Amino acid sequence: MAFILGTPDNDTLDGTLKADTFTGGEGADTINGSQGVDIAVYSGNAADYRLGWSNGSYTVTDLNLNDGNDGADVLTGIETLRFADRDYALPPIGEFRATITTLNDQMNPSLAVLTDGSTIITWDSYSPSGTAVPGIGAQRFDVNGMAVGPEFLVNTITQGAQSDPFVAALANGGFVIAWESGDGKDAQKGIFGRLYNAEGVAQGGEFRVNTTTESQQLDPVIAGLADGGFVVSWASNLQDGSGYGVYAQRYDASGVAQGGEIPVNSYTIGDQSGPSISALASGGFVVTWASDGQDGDSSGVYAQRFDANGATVGSEFLVNTEIVNIQNQSVVTELANGDLVFSWRSQYQDGGLGGVYAQRFDSDGVAQSTEFRVNTTVAESQRSPSITALEGGGFVIVWESQLQDGSAEGVYAQIYSDTGVPVGGEFRINSTTADAQASPEVAATSDGGFIVTWTSMGQDGSLQGIFAQRFTSGGEALAPSVHGTSGDDTIDLRGDGLSGVGHAGNDTYVVLFSNTQLVEAPGEGTDQVKSVISWTLGDNLENLNLIGGAAIDGTGNELANNIAGNTAANLLSGGAGNDTLIGGAGNDTLDGGADVDVLRGGADDDTYLVTAGDSVVEASGQGTDNVISTVSFVLSANVENLKLKGWDAINGTGNGLANTISGNSGSNILLGGGGADLLQGGGGNDTLNGEGGTDTLQGGSGDDTYYTSPTDSIIEGLNSGYDTVYSSINWTLSANLEKLVLTGAALKGKGNSLDNTLLGTESRNILNGNAGNDDIDGGGGNDLLLGGSGNDTINGGDGIDNLRSGDGNDILTGGAGPDAFSFDSALSDVTNVDTITDFEHLSDKMRLDDDIFTAFNAGVSNKVLAGQLVQGDGLTTAQDADDHIIYDTGSGALYYDADGNGAGAAVQFAQLGTGSHPTISEADFVIIA
């Protein structure tokens, strides 16, 4: 271990092969850690430094010059940043060496991801003494790729060769490693294993797995089972009476064997070898292997399913479809949906020396679709596949490819969906391409990605070494990262290309580049991102604060986020969760998303997108603000406008300001509140009520209903539905409105040129239909009802009503009480004959205007005198000189004859009754001037 100090100048500091501590001091220093776990020391607190990544190195820049200037440094091979108040960890970047030991060969790796997210890698390790007798080495890495403790030797027996290890994760957080062990005397080998708990502590020494010890047992594989136990499978020579056969042994979680050895293969002619195993969610397991000659050619891939007790489920089955030449090196995994995916090497099938193929089967072992080629590149040989199911439901296959990366071998991968559809193309795993990279193994990580380990020739400075690299679910290599502490960290990541991992505590991240990744686990404090660019909060990050003066956007996640804008126009989107969005200055748009959100706009003209339960908070004088809502909404104080969206029948309510409230395509109720409001109904059958103030009500399409105040105006388009106005004041229907209903103390109502319906109150009303074929109902009270032009239907209702029909063939109903029917428009027996449906003799009156009925003079007499009315069944003409009113008692037709002698044709002006016809006399008429 060395302590290496810089000068006030720009230094280049190189480390040793051991753990070094560097203090660069002032100046722009370049620090190269070399081997070992190295530390770079800085004088200030962590929040005073900007961290970045450039050209394969970390950058650290001192931003606070008041406590000394540590300059701007470039770091390579440094594992820890030590500040005055805390340490930040720098995990391995890209592919990393998994071993501390580099002397001689480290090869044939196996790996497993444990329940806490950490990874255990094990391998063949040749002894440092150069005796070429390998042992089993292992190293644990935490969820961030940092080594946990030193590498350790798994085997305690050191006589003979210990080789070909395989590791599996257990349900209790521990792991188990199995390997081939020679006795040091001859070539015979057996299978041994060793169990470790979740802390990585060995639970006793190694134990022999195979019961049968004759000849040799090779190629161990392991799977952790659903009940916490595990199963080991291997190839055993001569045990089944032929060459090699495949066997298995179950263990409980304590490492106690359950029953005896299980023969896996049923077909025993020739060799069955090279097993691979996968646990099943049902508690059982599946084993696959290569079988000589069984498929009719050289070698084929077979599989057998077992239940949780180790009993076979069904028969062994052929996996590969193509049987020509050799199919071997098979591997298997179970997907989240219960399907099984097998992969293997097939000789010559892809046109090269060999390719990697795969096939999906359902949980019953039935093939799904057909086998497919995994590798895209077919030149030379692709071999040694490894497979794992991914957290997202898909799977990834890795293999070694000959000459593809320009060296002897390289490691490649292909990701698939859960239905076997390729996700992107094949991609190279190893970054170093010199010599050979081979023997890959892959395991899924808890974040949806995966980790690959392999053997690399010459990369660690000796013969073969073990390297590894982590990837995201999309196949991208994990970005370089800075790890905080368990306290409240402020990590300034405004340098390009870095990821931050805050761990526990209430952490703050400062970001500038979109490729910065932030990683937080659940329950690790309340964390904040300060961003100079548009930013979307990742998993387990709570708060976002936009900084700077650019018009950028902020987006939340499923948590209860607090998102604050900057001084420019921002789009803030909460997503799921009960969020608080704060716009600040600028014309901001705040979208709470799902759940119950609080939206605070700040200065300038803000737009709010709300859902059920959201609240909007605005201070006085902070611009003209708009709410867009998909649910019923009431404008809070100081918010001006509301627009309803969608098709649902929802409502909008204003406040005391001059609001503009717009409906959607559904049937809305729009209430203006106080103020001079503009209400716009849009589509649907809307109800608009200005609620005081000088309001403009615009219904739009649909059958709309309006409630008016004294100074309101209503705007309706042509053919925009059948619209109704309710008014408690005198009201005249404007253009394109059909119906008027008077309420309260309203007295007068007037129609327009359409066919209107006018309804009075229980008090006295004056209703005027104006033009059109109107339907007028006076209701209660002593009403004056004016038909106007058109063929009107007028109903007096209760009270003493005066029905002035005007022009047109009108239908008049007086209703209860003594009513008057006035005839004061030019007569026409074609276009102006009114029907009185309920005339009551000696109660109702027919009022005849002497300007129309010129035979009478109201100034002389306001009565029809005896002899001026003649009536009889079928009578239609005058009988003598003073017969001016003629009543056909049989038909109910009532005529006027101007000269009274029949010389001029009598003109019908009324029809009394429809089914039956009332009795009348001269007393039923009144002459008016």
Quick structural overview:
The protein has 929 residues and is mainly beta.
Helix content: under 10%
Instruction: State the distance separating the first and last CA atoms.
Output: 125 Å
Radius of gyration: 47 Å
- Overall, the morphology is elongated
Structural class: mainly beta
The number of E-state strands comes to 84
Count of helix runs:
0
**What strand order characterises the main sheet?**
56-58-60-62-64-66-68-70-72-74-76-78-83-82-81-80
Strand content of the residues, in percent?
35-45%
The major β-sheet equals: 16 strands, mixed
Poorly predicted tracts of residues: none
Residue-averaged pLDDT: 94
Description:
The protein has 929 residues and is an all-beta fold. Among the domains are: 1-90 and 480-525, no CATH class; 94-208, no CATH class; 549-623, no CATH class; 845-928, no CATH class. 0% of the residues lie in helices and 43% in strands. It has a 16-stranded mixed beta sheet with strand order 56-58-60-62-64-66-68-70-72-74-76-78-83-82-81-80, with no helix packed on it. The chain has an 11-stranded parallel beta sheet with strand order 45-47-49-51-53-55-57-59-61-63-65, with no helix packed on it.
